[in-house]
Amino acid sequence: MADYTAFDVAHLANVELLTPKFEESLWFFKDLLAMREVTRVGDSAYLRCWDEYQQYTIKLTASDAAGVGRTSFRAASPEALERRVAAIDGAGLGEGWVEGEVGTGRTFLFRDPDGHEMGIYYDTERYVASDEDRPALKNQASAYPGRGVNARRLDHINFLAKDVEANGEFIAAALGGRESERIKLDNGKLAAWWFHFSLKSYDVVYSDDWTKHGNRLHHIAFAPDTREDILKGADIFLENGIHIESGPHKHAINQTFFLYVWEPGGNRIEFANAGARLLLDPDQPVVEWSEEERKKGQAWGMKTIETFHTHGTPIV
Amino acid sequence: MADYTAFDVAHLANVELLTPKFEESLWFFKDLLAMREVTRVGDSAYLRCWDEYQQYTIKLTASDAAGVGRTSFRAASPEALERRVAAIDGAGLGEGWVEGEVGTGRTFLFRDPDGHEMGIYYDTERYVASDEDRPALKNQASAYPGRGVNARRLDHINFLAKDVEANGEFIAAALGGRESERIKLDNGKLAAWWFHFSLKSYDVVYSDDWTKHGNRLHHIAFAPDTREDILKGADIFLENGIHIESGPHKHAINQTFFLYVWEPGGNRIEFANAGARLLLDPDQPVVEWSEEERKKGQAWGMKTIETFHTHGTPIV
Amino acid sequence: MADYTAFDVAHLANVELLTPKFEESLWFFKDLLAMREVTRVGDSAYLRCWDEYQQYTIKLTASDAAGVGRTSFRAASPEALERRVAAIDGAGLGEGWVEGEVGTGRTFLFRDPDGHEMGIYYDTERYVASDEDRPALKNQASAYPGRGVNARRLDHINFLAKDVEANGEFIAAALGGRESERIKLDNGKLAAWWFHFSLKSYDVVYSDDWTKHGNRLHHIAFAPDTREDILKGADIFLENGIHIESGPHKHAINQTFFLYVWEPGGNRIEFANAGARLLLDPDQPVVEWSEEERKKGQAWGMKTIETFHTHGTPIV
Amino acid sequence: MADYTAFDVAHLANVELLTPKFEESLWFFKDLLAMREVTRVGDSAYLRCWDEYQQYTIKLTASDAAGVGRTSFRAASPEALERRVAAIDGAGLGEGWVEGEVGTGRTFLFRDPDGHEMGIYYDTERYVASDEDRPALKNQASAYPGRGVNARRLDHINFLAKDVEANGEFIAAALGGRESERIKLDNGKLAAWWFHFSLKSYDVVYSDDWTKHGNRLHHIAFAPDTREDILKGADIFLENGIHIESGPHKHAINQTFFLYVWEPGGNRIEFANAGARLLLDPDQPVVEWSEEERKKGQAWGMKTIETFHTHGTPIV
């Protein structure tokens, strides 16, 4: 695998979510998550959290079915971008350069082996707050909304994949991702694999797609500042008729405090808080969980909810 | 300055604290912070927090006066270590290699321009929990103590320096640190300068030493998982007669939720929580605060306590 | 004093706040505290928190100056109301019966010795949520707003009084309040006196009015569910340009976690969280603090802010 | 039912827990809950939480089987005690006066219809902190331990009963308890009934004993100050091998944030936080939940765990 003295990918940058219930999904992100709609282009709304430095992180697109469109990563430098494009092309999965969207510079498109559409870019336009959302503290991207789950930023994406190993190896080789944790079944196959690009313990995850459909989403996650934000979020989702699938509880894997809901379009959305946990060790060995160990359920003993293994988008 | 596509320093690794009240200071770290004493060598106790992967982070040494001894950094790779040693030597501040202490590999010693003793190393021995402190979750360094302020790890160090600019420039050039925020006085001088090595918004800070004494400490900080840990910590320090200097409150600069106390030996100790705030942008512009802006005090309006500018260790 | 096997006053029921900036004050209560405007009558807006069972708790009235209008208490039963009216009349401070406002039954008006207008009633109309604010859980008065400081209910009132003793004795004798804590100055006078009606540690407080003006307000307080609500509230007030006077911090007296702000009209508003602390003991001795003890400041050492002793409404 | 202008019972005062694993149970209460052992008499240890004003709240007794011994209530006054004794005797369930234990005055013994042993008293000896556990704040019973779940006080008891209606009616008639919530099955029988004595929303609960054994315990509960204490508690129980049965989550009924564990002896222990929720309304109508409504599970959608209806102590 790659040499991890440096990460060429700075962070997960944006995700396109497809929804068959555009207006309801938009209400979810704007009213319940307090995301701001930056612009509207065609059937898509571009949205950002209050402390994100770029123009947008979620592109919400009206579609026949729920699911995930393009997922983009920001490279750490122009040189890092060149290195990654070369590695992707070397894997034969590159699809060429396009103009980026809404403040995003030129973007190299590619697909992971499972068929998920991806992009990588370096150039970006920083968000400049207007009078309306200028923050009181100048080291913050925009004003604190003080409502909803107060998600500060997009955190990670968990893809379903027909072949977890093949896709994880691609993330490692092509994007320079480093594995942090994984579940190995008794049959020797990986059921899920967690990758990260810097101190965060995960940014991209692959989970087994039991349908073998391809190009499906397990969930995307946002990061609120505190566990209390997540508890409050549960009350808000309860009041607003949003399906709470699981949590609040604590994952054994990577120890995040979590809440999973389904946005009105059907996509699973997580809210995750890692506390002060960071992967500071540049040589951190991967943590592997056996089938037996996973039977213990989540950290505090709650059994992993069955729909984690039956619901993904698009629904097939 | 350096190219920030990668950081050669992985993280702040350990700090030697000097104390004229060794037993009382040891009680503070072991009983109130729930740190574990790993070993004792001569007049020094080696201590670690519950989720630190190395053998120790604090070396507590009996001394005539409070203050700071050697501060060490872990390099991200053997090659990164070589690069940094070359840079330090280039600045004429290298002092040569020594054997590392208590699980730390060979270490290159040097001093910053202000005279603070420093070391950098790559090789390290991971901590392996004994039966007594084996964690229930295998992705954790040792058992969760569930008492005190529950500090998960050492977070940062803030040095007093006669010349903030000279020392900050050294951190940037010799260690590859990147500036995140700074205070510029009306006379054009920097009053304080924050540097970081990865996603964390600061790891090393220089603050103006009004005494111009040299080699002094403003504070070291630990990272608990939640703001509630810090509120509980305040109650614990109150009950145990520890001087609470300031907080709990929120810094305007870098927005950390904080509490400052003086350990029995006189060194200032901070507990800091950053929430979900990370410096994801590889091109993050520095945030500069003017003298006028700093007059507003901390984030929620509390005036910065006067002793921040009168108390440092050693006391002179 | 009274026999405390029972409390004739069930709780502080509602407060009329006077404001010279009606629209701005209304914005504060509706947008930042998420209170609901129930009705508007003349120059007054009637407002309630999300889990209050009556029609309103705050009557906000446009006025030349900030300050407090009528403060009402709900009696525990019709018999309790009769007993209290007799006691008030016995003190010569009764002013007779009036029709209650907005769901409040007939009300007996009176004044405390300092001249604050007060009322007591028993009959009340419970709030019935409309489709718009119907809660998901039937044991809640209305839907959880999930924004602002999420104050669940009005908590207490702190009056300024020319003569703390005389007014406290009136609350004890006429309303059956029980003292919980008090500050006694070296000259033998009480500087502040805390009274409660049931398990809550205080509902009505008298503080010395240094101006000797009479009929002034120190503050009213709301109760959010958690300390985190109060920390979030501080961020919200910061973003919205509301003057944060003091906190978040913890009171030594009665140990509430607090935040004080000035609403746009100038009235001081507190947000207070008591945790699990209740006065369960029916024979709880009063806790008396000396002048010397109060010099220690608040629980965690922050000095009591000077404006606590210079700002009250109306401003004189 | 009773006239609720006053409550003759001030609060649930103490509970005797029986354990077949005395040493392990004692470790649970002392080391994990930070309760203090006040004295030892015969096979019983008397324990108290850090902010309880009496000598003890838990009497832990070595026994052949887990379960509950005597549950005592403190009357609000000598006159209230007389009234309750008369009411209990009137129900034919009185068993006469005994000397109280460890600071508790003379106590009238009785049994509820299900056979649970109970006592009521008024005279009590307040706890006076020694040098060792003297609190920094004088309005607190003893020093804040700052470890474990930081439970401030005993909160409530939930009994299993062969006949929920008969026992609930007894609590109402004999002790003057007021119902707050209840579950009514489709067959018209109550499955559980919640009673309270003052502003707290419940102090005594009866749940259906599916075994029809009699004299069994569902659980006792402690009150920590914050939800974060409960989340931390979950980590502590995980590390210490304590069976976490359910939670952390939020009850629909009475809305408490909860965690249930089994102490080593087998008794179910809850940690419950009510936030700022109090039953202020002296005429609060009972909240009744149907079988259909209960199928929705807990507040945030987690299904009620099956062992709530299969595990009680003694195990039969």
Automatic annotation (TrEMBL), chains A, B, C, D:
Its EC number is 1.13.11.2. It is an enzyme of class 1 (oxidoreductase). PANTHER family: GLYOXALASE FAMILY PROTEIN, METAPYROCATECHASE. GO terms for molecular function: catechol 2,3-dioxygenase activity. It comes from the Bacteria. This is Catechol 2,3-dioxygenase. Keywords: Dioxygenase, Oxidoreductase. Residues 11-123, 153-274 form the VOC domain. The keyword Oxidoreductase applies. Pfam families: Glyoxalase. InterPro entries: Glyas_Bleomycin-R_OHBP_Dase, Glyas_Fos-R_dOase_dom, GlyoxalaseI/FosfomycinResist, VOC_core.
